[in-house]
Specification:
Low-confidence stretches: 197-201
Helix content: 40-55%
Number of helices: 8
Radius of gyration: 16 Å
Bound molecules: glutathione
Mean pLDDT: 94
Strand order of the largest sheet: 2-1-3-4
Order of helices and strands: EHEHEEHHHHHH
Number of domains: 2
Strand content: 5-15%
Length: 203
């Protein structure tokens, strides 16, 4: 049994998309940051940082976007979210490490810094359809979630990040992404600039 703890529009959107890609049944439990539901003793017992996502696999919690994505891709290979080739897999891990360690925290270090880091992602993606090896993978899901948030909150001119914008459009056409965005919008965003409060949070 798979259970995803999520907050609409946040990092948990990435494993939420992957769950729709693999097409397995799962339970989705929404947490409201504003109500402090990620800071209850019960939630801290499964995720001591009080963050989302947490993916619970038959009662065992797994945290961090990259870990959750890697598990879903490896455990459900029919969805083809990760190739068998060792070098391709290493490149997917390399992208996801960059996304988690450099791209995600960039916003907190000021707009100029963030624009510079997104320019790095733009150059790294280049004119390729997908992040690694010409095939859709979990790296694309991870990249999309961050750029989706960056794009929807800051609305940079499309000509500034043409490769990331084209990638965003390819992702937005995927049924799993459409399903996830609809499900999360129906719950309601609590994100700055998206009808939620302006409270500053790591999103
Ligand atoms: N390194 C973590 C970061 C997760 C993260 O920053 N989650 C944010 C939402 S995007 C969160 O739960 N924030 C609530 C809080 O820290 O109180 C990952 O990649 O999963």
């Amino acid at each position: 049994m798979l259970t995803l703890y999520f907050a609409p529009g946040s990092s948990s959107m990435a494993p939420h998309i992957a769950l729709h890609e693999i097409g397995q049944p799962f339970e989705a439990i929404e947490l409201s940051f504003h109500k402090g539901e990620n800071r209850t003793p019960e939630y801290l017992a499964i995720n001591p940082l009080g963050q989302v996502p947490t993916l619970v696999i038959d009662g065992r919690p797994l945290t961090e976007v990259a870990g959750c994505l890697f598990y879903l891709a490896s455990a459900f290979p029919a969805a083809r979210l990760l190739r068998d080739d060792a070098e391709d897999q290493a490149r997917v891990v390399s992208w996801m490490s960059f996304i988690a360690a450099t791209l995600h925290p960039a916003r907190r270090q000021g707009l100029d810094h963030a624009l510079g880091i997104y320019a790095q992602a733009e150059a790294r993606l280049g004119a390729n359809d997908w992040a690694v090896g010409g095939a859709y993978s979990i790296a694309d899901i991870h990249l999309f979630r961050l750029f989706w948030r960056f794009n929807s909150s800051l609305k940079p001119p499309p000509e500034k990040f043409p490769n990331l914008m084209a990638h965003h459009a390819r992702m937005m056409a995927r049924p799993a992404v459409i399903k996830t965005l609809q499900a999360e919008a129906a719950v309601g965003y609590e994100l700055p600039g998206q009808g939620g409060s302006e409270r500053k949070s790591a999103v």
